[in-house]
Amino acid sequence: MKVIEWLRPGIKVKRWIFLGIFGLMLVIFGVLEIIRYRFLLTFVYNSFFIFLVVSGSITLYISVISGMKSVIALVNKGYLNVPINSRRLETMIYEKRLLVKGPKIVAIGGGTGLSTMLRGLKYYTSNITAIVTVSDDGGGSGALREDLGILPPGDIRNCILALSDTEPLMEQLLQYRFKDGRLKNQSFGNLFLAAMDGISTNFEEAVNKMSSVLAVTGKVIPVTTENVVLKAELENGEIVIGESLIPIVSSKGENKIKNVFLDPPDAKPLPQAIDAIMEADAVILGPGSLYTSIIPNILIDDIKSSLKTTKALKIYVSNIMTQPGETDGYSVLSHIKAINKHAGGKIIDSVVVNEGGLNKDLEDRYSKEKSYLVKYDKDKLEDEGIGIIKGDFINIQNGHIRHDTEKLASILINNIMEEKLLYDKKKIIEYFYLSERLKGKNKEMNKEK
To answer: Which residues, 6 or more positions from 386, have their beta carbon under 8 angstroms from its beta carbon?
Structure first.
């Protein structure tokens, strides 16, 4: 709309502009006179000037509110052309009113499982901090770690993409793996993060810059910026060096993992990771490889200590299937005992368990790989004082068993609401926001069925 068009009769904006100017003049005149005489005049004069200030303020308020209404009316009638993307507007509303007010959640782990969960959680809150392991030494991440001396970018890249607000084409590009040449099997996203590291002062800054470029919801933090190596002691006393070799050696020799440890053992976490854990409403461990994705994070002393002292609800998301070379024959309780053992005490309040089954073909295919459904014993878990959150979370993607992103996120949020928000008077509004959000998501999931 051109400026001259604002002068046309019937626009109903000019009157409020002039009224606003008049109100502002009254306020300025009254304030100046009060300052000038400093209440030295009679009570009548002083009251008059105060009246001018109050009247001017009311007039100014009315003019601003009415002016805004007039502009909105012009937009609705088509006199003003304001491009509004309804989908984007909806996104802005829930980001401002819901996501910013959502529960503070810390997710600890690595691998595919963590990023799968994060995709669902970002629908309910933007207060997410993903603390990611950096002990990976295999695949494309391991190659970049060896060639460039940077921390392994793979798990961090997956978490950034899971929390980002990018177009499908951009995500497809960052996940693309080269098929030939010296870059064969290398991810473009890994190279992107490596390049970002090259123009940054440190790896932490590189992660922050990539997160900013991709409009990440929340934060992604490497658990440490030190070059740590994961080692494992097997039941026969053998020491295996390197995350990628641990399940291979354990599986070949049929020797279970006794414990894992880091070299150097005194690695320091990022301060932001500790702050996030201490301020969190909930800390979620997993899903992911027990000994190579989850436990490496809690081997760092300060992380371990903060998990013991935080008032956050601590939830472990159990894997759906056992992992050959890591958790052969493990039940849900076996997973939890391994975590508590390496943490030096109990740190798990509740556990998310899968009670869904597999069709025979899929079960047979996985059994050939010596991978089976993780079983849970309700009575034993309750005896240990661990709450049970159960559901059918199985989702088949390209023939592989994964957690259902939406089901997992909704049940986690529901549990956090009931345990942390419902009885906190300061967070009751957030509770109602999330209730409405969950209802909407449940309707969507029911329609898809």
So the answer is: 336, 348, 349, 350, 351
The pLDDT of residue 83 is: 52
Query: How far is CA 255 from each of CA 107, 230, 373, rounded to the nearest angstrom?
Result: 30, 17, 20
Q: What kind and span of H or E run contains 147? A: helix 139-148
Whether this model's pTM surpasses 0.90: no
Q: In which residue ranges of the chain is pLDDT below 50?
A: 1-3, 82, 84, 89
Class of residue 383 by CB neighbours under 10 A (exposed 0-12, middle 13-18, buried 19+): exposed
Predicted pLDDT at 430: 78
Tokens for 34? 């009060």
CA-to-CA distance for 172 and 175, rounded, in angstroms?
A: 5
Q: At what angle do helices 154-163 and 139-148 cross, to 10 degrees?
A: 120
Structure tokens at 64: 């601003």
**Backbone torsions φ then ψ of 441, nearest 5 degrees:** -65, -40
Q: What is the pLDDT of residue 43?
A: 74
Residue-level pLDDT at 415: 94
Q: Which residues contact 295 (CB under 8 A, 6 or more apart)?
A: 260, 338, 339, 342
- Residue 219 tokens read as 């934060």
On whether the CB atoms of residues 121 and 105 are closer than 8 A, the answer is: yes
At 274, list the tokens.
Answer: 């500790």
118-165 pLDDT, tens digit per residue, is 999 998 999 999 999 999 998 888 889 988 889 999 999 999 999 998
Residues 441, 29: Cα–Cα separation, whole Å? 56
Angstrom distance (rounded) from CA 412 to CA 432: 16
pLDDT at 413: 94
Task: Tell me how far CA of residue 211 lies from CA of 99, 246, 265, in angstroms.
Answer: 17, 31, 29
Q: What is the DSSP letter of 374?
A: P
pLDDT for res 396: 93
Which is nearest to 377 in space by CA: 337, 409, 423, 410?
337
